[in-house]
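seq:
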Amino acid sequence: MSIKDAVLPVVRDARATVLPDPTDRHGPLPPVLLALTVVTGLVDSFSYLVLGHVFVANMTGNVVFSGFAIAGAAGFSLAASLAALAAFGAGALVGGRIAHACRAHRGRVLHLALVLETVLVLAAYAVARFDAPLDAPGARYPLIALLGLALGIQNAMARALAVPDLTTTVLTMTITGIASDSRAAGGHGGRTGRRALSILAMFAGALAGTFAVRYSDPSLPLLLATLLLAGCTLTAFTLTRSDATWTDPL
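struct:
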């Protein structure tokens, strides 16, 4: 197989994710979820670098960090990890209720979840912008709670929408899929472009968030996340009016 034959399907898949066919089963959802993956990178870069060794989107990390903290490893807080897990779980519960209440129209699930997430991340930005120091308990735990709730809602919404390879928060299975479904492994190499875009989106969010924390205002990643979420929310509002096939529950 030539390089061209190997690359073209990946490019076509990536393009179909960014500019999806309106008649596709998932319609316009993929680019919105891709933007939310960038949000995850921004928010987790803030939580890890500014709030200490804690994630608000990657719960696998917090489970591992809890083990580190119990074993006495320096720099890890059991209370912070448990707070993030609790907030995320509560957010996922809220997101699940939204998904079940609006299940007849996937666009409404997306919109309502994004409204709540945007409000929560905006509130977190306000706390981070005007409350210092951010690693003090008075700011740290409200921020963990607000962001954990927001990302829990996002994760539950993405799970309900079930767009393949666009979970917005977890990349382990995405990376596994690239390797295990590749032609080198004997597979067909399906959705490699979409999976690669998901990885790049998370990377871009984390990179931008880290640069913002290190060289600008530590609260800037949350402002950028809020702006992205606001754009996604406006887009989702227009989608609530659609009666296309993609809006039907899976």
